[in-house]
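Severity: low
Component: inverse-folding endpoint
Summary: output formatting inconsistent between runs
Steps to reproduce: submit the following structure tokens with default settings.
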């Protein structure tokens, strides 16, 4: 096959931008670039929203636990963006109140949660969905009749957002195509260059004024395959969730004392979503829930409810690989969910990020694109 090379000849032709990656970060980057009037072409090696972006905890949240690691700017930005998504797509999002039961000997003391929630409300500012509140033990039991009461002293409740991550991503894709952007699914990019040349698996080559590598977990792999040096390294963390018959129409954020981690128990589409785990992942292995992770979630949940669940109760399980910026001195739960964007000539590489701040990430990508296309 003769390689096909497309170039821009006339100054009146729209500047062309290629976005590689059909997850939420790639879609938001493409959407923002299309709003600017660029000719945008998005490539996805499988189908849109088929990987990490549809395997989230389905929350639009600031990240309460990030306050423990002093990630104030990330939490503030996330809380601002939470409000955007809730207003932009109300049919796919909703406000949700989460309850954190307090037990004697818990991971965090009551005053620690109080400080964190006061700060959470403060950082949300005018975008707050509702102030946190304290629940007595009797109120907790009234809300969750089958919850473990041994050592229970009360609870805190606070607000965040919930979403259908897959449908919300497709909503973004429609905003992109409405602006004239084009999407090529099942189209793998095998190589990129700093000069804006993109090579497809078919052998075809296309020249762009700017190329954005927003491949999520595969961003570093594409850079390496293209023989391009990059100082940013990713650490992939697999997060597994299970869906079981509904326990309650209310949401819980529970402590697992053994792992010293918290996990969500959320109402979702008439069932209950439980997650997540954090396990280092290698892309040479398939991204799927392991029996160890499923048993971890079952065991963690069963510590809090009389009605014990088993694997036979699981309706569905799924896993996604989250790309985190590698920091050798930090544990997985300490690593920031912030993103890094690196620009080299006409190539922009995007590393890390979280679902809630994907539009902000897209704005940052656009700023870099504008610097490339002057």
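Observed output (run 2 of 3):
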């Amino acid at each position: 096959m003769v390689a096909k090379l497309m170039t821009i000849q006339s100054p009146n032709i729209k500047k062309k931008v290629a976005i590689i990656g059909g997850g939420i970060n790639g879609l938001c980057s493409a959407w923002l670039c299309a709003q600017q009037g660029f000719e945008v072409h998005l490539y996805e090696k499988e189908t849109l929203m088929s990987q990490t972006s549809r395997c989230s905890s389905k929350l639009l949240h600031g990240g309460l636990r990030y306050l423990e690691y002093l990630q104030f700017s990330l939490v503030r930005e996330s809380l601002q963006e939470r409000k955007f998504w809730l207003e932009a797509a109300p049919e796919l999002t909703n406000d949700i109140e989460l309850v954190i039961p307090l037990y004697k000997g818990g991971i965090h003391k009551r005053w620690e949660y109080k400080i964190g929630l006061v700060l959470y409300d403060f950082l949300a500012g005018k975008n707050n969905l509702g102030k946190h509140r304290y629940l007595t033990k009797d109120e907790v039991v009234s809300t969750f009749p089958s919850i473990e009461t041994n050592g229970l002293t009360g609870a805190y409740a606070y607000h965040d957002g919930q979403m259908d991550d897959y449908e919300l991503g497709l909503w973004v894709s429609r905003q992109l195509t409405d602006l004239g952007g084009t999407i090529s699914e099942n189209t793998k990019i095998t190589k990129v260059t700093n000069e804006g040349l993109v090579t497809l698996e078919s052998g075809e080559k296309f020249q762009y004024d700017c190329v954005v590598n927003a491949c999520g977990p595969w961003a570093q792999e594409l850079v390496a395959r293209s023989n391009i040096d990059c100082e940013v390294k990713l650490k992939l963390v697999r997060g597994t969730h299970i869906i079981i018959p509904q326990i309650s129409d209310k949401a819980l954020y529970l402590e697992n004392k053994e792992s010293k981690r918290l996990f969500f128990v959320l109402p979702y589409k008439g069932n209950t979503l439980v997650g997540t785990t954090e396990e280092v992942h290698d892309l040479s292995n398939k991204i799927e829930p392991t029996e160890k992770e499923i048993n971890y979630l079952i065991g963690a949940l069963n510590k809090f409810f009389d009605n014990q669940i088993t694997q036979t109760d699981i309706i569905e399980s799924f896993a996604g690989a989250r790309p985190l910026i590698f920091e050798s001195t930090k544990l997985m739960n300490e690593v920031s969910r912030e993103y890094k964007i690196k620009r080299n000539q006409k190539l922009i590489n995007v590393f890390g990020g979280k679902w809630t701040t994907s539009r902000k990430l897209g704005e940052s990508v656009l700023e870099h694109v504008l610097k490339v296309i002057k």
